[in-house]
Amino acid sequence: MTTETKIAVPARRSFLRGAGIATLSATAVALLAGRESLAQGMKGDMSKDVSILNIALGLEHEAIAAYQIGAESKLLKQPVLGVAVAFQSHHKEHRDALVATIGKMGGKAVAAKSMQEYAEALNVKSIKSANDILILAARLEKGAANAYLGVIPSFSNNDLAKVSARLAADETMHWTVLAQAIKEPLPKMALSFGA
Q1: ∠ CA(124), CA(128), CA(134), 5° rounding?
Q2: Is the pLDDT assigned to residue 115 strictly greater than 70?
Q3: I need a labelling partner for 135 at 20 to 30 A (CA). Which of 54, 124, 183, 185 fits?
Q4: Average pLDDT of span 11-27
Q5: Do residues 105 and 46 touch, judged by C-beta distance below 8 A?
Q6: Helix, strand, coil percentages in the chain from 3-state DSSP, rounded to 5
Q7: Angle between the 158-181 and 130-151 helix axes, to the nearest 10 degrees?
Q8: What is the four-CA torsion angle of 111, 115, 118, 119, rounded to 10 degrees?
Q9: Do the beta carbons of residue 54 and residue 107 sit within 8 Å?
Q10: Residue 193 above 80 pLDDT?
Q11: CB 110 within 8 A of CB 54
Q12: DSSP SS3 for 128
C-alpha cells in the first residue's frame, strides 16, 4: 500500500466492546454454538444479546462484502483469488450461525448493506493494487480475531468460551495467511492477539 492510500477499517474490537459484547449471555453463546440443550434453563437479557449479535453479524456482512469487492476488482489473481473466496465462505458460515442464533432468540437479524455502502465505508476507491486489497483484508481479519478473543474471559463455562475461541481461530488463520501474502512481519512478541 502506498503512503497516500488510506483504507478505512473499522475498529471491530473496540466497536464490539463498546456495544457490550463482553457481556453476551451464556444463552446466546450456547445457541450460537448450536448447543440448544445447554441453552435451556439459562437466563439472560435476550434483547441485549440480540443487539450484540446483530453488531457481530453486521461485521460479518462487512467482511463478506470486502472479499466480494476484492474478488470483483480483477486485481486478485489465482491462487490468491481462491484463498479470498474460501475466506469469504468462512465468513458466510459465521453469518449463517449468527442469523440462526438471532432467530432462535426471537430477534430479527440485521440485513446487509448495499455493496456501494460497503465500498464507501471501506474507501475502496483508494485501492489500486492486489496488495491494497490484502492489506484491507488483513486488518479486518485481525480486528475480528481480537473482537472474538475479547469476549472469552467473560465465560465461566468452557463450552461457551470454546465457541468464541473457534471463531477467533478462524479469523487468526485468515490474518496469518494474509499477513504472509503482504509480507507483514510476524509479531515480534508472543501473545500479540487479544491484548
Answers
A1: 75
A2: yes
A3: 54
A4: 47
A5: yes
A6: 70, 0, 30
A7: 160
A8: 180
A9: yes
A10: yes
A11: yes
A12: coil
| Mean pLDDT (the chain, rounded) | 80
Instruction: Report residue 189 as a C-alpha cell.
Output: 512478541
pLDDT at 31 over 60: yes
The region, left, alpha or beta by phi > 0 then psi within -120 to 50, assigned to residue 191 is left
pTM score of the predicted model: 0.77
Instruction: Name the nearest CA neighbour of 169 among 152, 185, 189, 154.
Output: 152
What integer is the mean pLDDT of 35-55?
66
pLDDT of 37 > 70? The answer is no
DSSP 52: H
Residue 122, C-alpha cell as written in the block: 471501506
Which amino acid would we find at residue 179? Answer: A
Those residues whose C-beta lies under 8 Å from the C-beta of residue 54, and which sit 6 or more positions away, are 102, 107, 109, 110
- Per the CB < 8 A criterion, the answer to whether 95 and 111 are in contact is no
Instruction: Give residue 193's identity as a one-letter amino acid code.
Output: F
Cα pseudo-dihedral 176, 181, 183, 188, rounded to 10: 10
> Are the CB atoms for 29 and 167 separated by under 8 Å?
no
C-alpha cell at 93: 458460515
Degrees, nearest 5: CA angle 10-188-14: 20
Domains defined along the chain, listed by start: 12-181 (1.20.1260.10)
